[in-house]
Amino acid sequence: MKKNNIIYQVYFPSFVPTIKDLIKKLSYLKKKLKVNMIWLNPIYPSGRKDCGYDITNYKDIDHTYGTLKDFDILIKKADELKIKIMMDLVFNHTSNQHPWFLESKSSKINNKKDWYCWYNKDEKEELNKWESSFMSEPWTWCEQRQQFYYHRFYSEQPDLNLQNHEVIKEIKNIIDFWIARGVRGFRLDAVGYYIADKEEGQFNTTKTYSFLEMLTKYVKKKNKKIIILAESEFENEDQAKKFIDICDLSRNEQFATINKLDIEKINNNINFWYNLNKPNKIPLWYLNHHDLDRQRYGEINPKLAKLMAALYLLQYGTKIIYYGEELNMRNSFPGTQFDSYGRDKCRSIFPWTDNNKEDRYWIPPHPDDISLKDQLVEPKSVFNHYKFLTNFQKNLPNRVSKCKIKKKSNILQIKNKKYKILLNFSDSCIEFKNMKNIIYRSDEDIIGSPKCIGGYEVIICEN
């Protein structure tokens, strides 16, 4: 993947209801935001327990969103605009309604008896320290088999046995199926939990890394240009480096873990991630995704939204924009009937116009969200700031930027051989003498000295 590319995360049916609707929005993504790749959250048929992450058929499209024919047209139309499609592959688990699991649970003597992680009562007792992300424990009893099955997530999401050769063969067939249809990127969900081990535990085991490496090599043998993005989690540098070395892009929660404007922590996290990706990997940056609150940095403030956008979009590397972020969308209004451990509120409908803000086919947007239609005509809107940044970042040098805090100030400086970018992490003006050749400022209405950086302002200078 080229440096300084933009991936746009599309969550169905929040961004648009169907694949046909997405085709109509490709021009928006390319012309306005310079998107190179679209990451589609799961659009397969599912058990509807976890918004598509409980798959019942890996080789089809959920009829709610469209058909395989619609998908093929999407690939063709996107390719005409030089946009590639990235699919979300969920191999850690399936739905408990998947035909594989229905056969596996039917008895201890069937063709898929070992396709999932089955444990006897005594084996389960040995592993009683294992945890589930959503449940009190990761075990569910099956009367038909008189055994427990293991699930890292919901009980409706039984873990696949990724050490089973038949399962691996089927996974490769699934990958082949989507590559043949023109998919050029795969986001691998929950990779850290692929293979739990009695000795090493549930998370980032040696067998997990080996499986991920095998999977990546298989994809690259098919087409070395296909991008592999790992939804990795790590507890230390060694774990993080393994994911970075194996995959093209590795999930980076350096901004996602920050809930307040701590300039020192932000600066340290940026440089930590740059150093881990040296010398030959492209860093991945983002602010939001489908599991995070949309506002985590204090008050809802357009200036603050612009600051955070510049913080990650003007770094060297690949960036992911979560749908609606370019509008500074808020979490859905409290009190709606949708809630999934607090995650539904960040998955509301994209407000294309004021009219569709009243839609109720899915999670309604916050009533104070400003529609795209209104932001297009407002020169200093958050959207037009994103539009500028996504265009401008294509000009950034293909090398790591240097980030540092200016002495005794709340100003973070991002510097490369062409530009100096200044970000004010306070809500008040700060005098700054060394500002020459200013080519952009996010708040041109600053009153007073031209040497003043406004509260939460972004200024770009040519060197």
TrEMBL record:
UniProt cross-references to Gene3D superfamilies, sorted A to Z: Glycosidases, Oligo-1,6-glucosidase, Domain 2
UniProt GO MF annotations: alpha-amylase activity
InterPro entries associated with the record: GH, GH13_cat_dom, O16G_dom_2
Protein name listed in UniProt: Alpha amylase, catalytic domain
Family annotation (Pfam families): Alpha-amylase (PF00128)
PANTHER family xref list: ALPHA-AMYLASE FAMILY MEMBER, NEUTRAL AND BASIC AMINO ACID TRANSPORT PROTEIN RBAT
Any single biological process term in GO: oligosaccharide catabolic process
Positions of the Glycosyl hydrolase family 13 catalytic domain: 9-366
